[in-house]
Amino acid sequence: KCGTIYEGRKGGVGRPVMGAHAYGFNSETTGVSVLGTYTDTAPSQAAMVSVARIAAWKLGQYGVDPAGTTTLTAGADGRNYTGKTWASGAQLTFPTIHGHRDGYNTQCPGNAL
């Protein structure tokens, strides 16, 4: 809640380590999490600044536009929070920075985040 950045998974935040954060899309994405429930309450400004900094740093390594879109290949059949479904191997377009619920049936990150 205070904007502290912690590193998760084996290998380090500076390496292309495959996480387990985006079922079906783990091999093509990097996960950033903010601990808490953000369905109605917004995260702290410190948390938002930390997410922005880590996203800018990670995307900057590859020259990726954070306001752009990206096409990902589904590694498994899936369904997102709004009910959209797809088959393994399908090509889907997402905002470059998108929420967990865009690629999986969960409320995460919540409407306030």
Q: Please, could you describe this protein's structure?
A:
This protein is α+β, with helices and mostly antiparallel strands and about 110 residues long. The protein has one domain. Helices cover about 20% and strands about 10% of the residues. It contains 2 helices and 4 strands. It has a two-stranded antiparallel ribbon with strand order 1-4. It has a two-stranded antiparallel ribbon with strand order 2-3. The model has no long low-confidence stretch (mean pLDDT about 90).
List keywords for this structure.
113 residues; alpha+beta; two-stranded antiparallel ribbon; two-stranded antiparallel sheet; 18% helix; 12% strand; globular
Brief rundown of the structure:
By secondary structure, the chain is of the alpha+beta class. It contains two helices and four strands; from the N terminus they run αββββα.
Present the secondary structure layout.
Blueprint: H1 45-60, E1 69-73, E2 78-79, E3 85-86, E4 91-95, H2 100-103
Antiparallel strand pairs: 1-4, 2-3
Strand order of the largest sheet: 1-4
Order of helices and strands: HEEEEH
Q: In percent terms, what proportion of residues is strand?
A: 5-15%
**Count of individual beta strands:** 4
Number of helices: 2
Helix content: 10-25%
Q: Outline the biggest β-sheet.
A: 2 strands, antiparallel
Q: Structural class of the secondary structure composition?
A: alpha+beta
Choose one word for the global shape. Answer: globular
Q: Could you name the ranges where pLDDT drops below 50 across 5 or more consecutive residues?
A: none
Q: Averaging pLDDT over every residue, what do you get?
A: 89
Radius of gyration: 14 Å
Counting structural domains, the number is 1
Distance from N terminus to C terminus (CA atoms, Å) equals 13 Å
